[in-house]
Amino acid sequence: MIFAMTIKNKQSPFHHNEANNQKVNYQKNFWEKGNFGVFEGKNKIKLHYAHFNKPTNQPNTSTILISQGRCESYLKYKETLYELHERGYQIFILDHRGQGLSDRLLKDTYKGYVDEFDDYAEDLYQFTSTIIKPLLEDKKLYLLAHSMGCAIALRMFQLYPNIINKAALLSPMIAINTGFIPDFLANILVRSGKKVNQLFSKVPWYFLGQKLYKAKPFDHNLLTQCTIRYKEIYDLYNKENKIQLGGVTFHWLFEALKAERNIFTDLAKIKTHLCVLQASSDKIVSNKKQTLFCQKLHQISPELIAKNPIIIKNAHHELLFEKDNIRTETIDKIIQFFESSTTDLGS
């Protein structure tokens, strides 16, 4: 809060009841086969990505593009990438502008900032159309998105319809959780802060209470209940300090609020089949707005989305980094949706 894959009957090699050194070996062997590249997004910002070809022994010919959340990098997704790859999918994952290994947009690289939220969507479209599509040979392309990555994906769908066959949206940032502050007051606070910032400085300011990167202890985190995965993330960001990102600026929040308005305004432009997975105990984004999004889009295009999200019970925000039982349920739901008929949305 800013304001206030496992196959059935097949044990995943990444379940945490296996020896840690075996897990590291799985990751290392898989990671060495990856293709890592850089391309220029909007305004020639250099964006980093990873690509893993389809396993030769798997019949699946589909591809999954992952659109990650704020503060994330593809380095964080090794476990998920491996499991999806084992399912037979070709995978692409992009570090969004201003985070991960991609170019930062301010001199202070810790500040969360983007010129315009739709710049993220333009990058994702360019990545999809110029890097991924030429390799597909008319095969299906699915999108798996988390949090901010969902808002980015939805704006891409609205700006460029039919670019993706299906999309699974995990804990989507339709709107930020403003806690006890009403939406109208949150908007006033952000707009006023941005104007004051512009009056006194050309340098974007952190929003109130936001600051440089600082890892939180497990007991104070709102992301996951899995101590092992949280420690792995904690250790990764301490080791790879170039992917560290601090809090958001007034400007970033202003753009995020604008993205929320655009998502609801342009609902009728969405032509992609969607599945929304909602973490029941999420404190980062607004579950209420997720449900409203599903209901409003279902009213316009009932064939594209179920009326209500699929609720993952007892789950915190980061479904792919949760405890094994929650994470396994999440991945099974995603694959079920991707492999089902377009009318079977699982809810």
Description:
The structure is a single chain. The protein has 347 residues and is of the alpha/beta class. The protein has helices spanning 20-31, 78-86, 117-132, 148-159, 183-200, 227-239, 250-265, 287-300, 324-339; strands spanning 35-40, 46-52, 63-67, 90-94, 141-146, 166-170, 273-279, 310-312. It starts with 19 loop residues before the first helix and ends in an 8-residue tail after the last helix. The model is unreliable at 3-19 and 343-347 (pLDDT under 50).
What's the topology here?
Blueprint: H1 20-31, E1 35-40, E2 46-52, E3 63-67, H2 78-86, E4 90-94, H3 117-132, E5 141-146, H4 148-159, E6 166-170, H5 183-200, H6 227-239, H7 250-265, E7 273-279, H8 287-300, E8 310-312, H9 324-339
Helix pairs in contact: 3-4, 4-7, 5-7
